[in-house]
UniProtKB/TrEMBL annotation:
Pfam families: DUF2383. It comes from Gottfriedia luciferensis. This is DUF2383 domain-containing protein. It comes from the Bacteria. Signal peptide: none annotated.
Amino acid sequence: MEKQQTIKTLNKFLQGQYMGIHAYEHFIKKLQQSPLKDSVISIQKDQKNHANIISERIQNLGGTPVTSEGLVGKVEGVIGNLINNYNTDEDIIKHAIKGENQYGIKMTEDLVRDKLDEESLKLVHNILNKDREHVDYLKSLLHS
């Protein structure tokens, strides 16, 4: 696998991690229920850790990691916040589940397919597995 392709793909993935971090920041501000808020803060910490892992991998490959979600991500975030009015904690959790599934997991699987070296792919798969755990946990919060 070409190193520059791997770096480019990992940077796109990293931009997605920053989008997730900022989405969770928005959710945290809106959550009313304290235990739920603590759970979402914990998930955001995982997202930040994932961003650090990917940044380090990019640097180890000789690249420069991005430091934000990029212009497109910022625009999508602003539009999403304007369109989606979350009125309840349940609405926030449902939106977080959708974001993790649709943007965090499915889009990443498409993004990295045949574009990463073995070590980078392993890192991304470990992160996706943790994201799947987040989805399962968020779903359990809806049913408790």
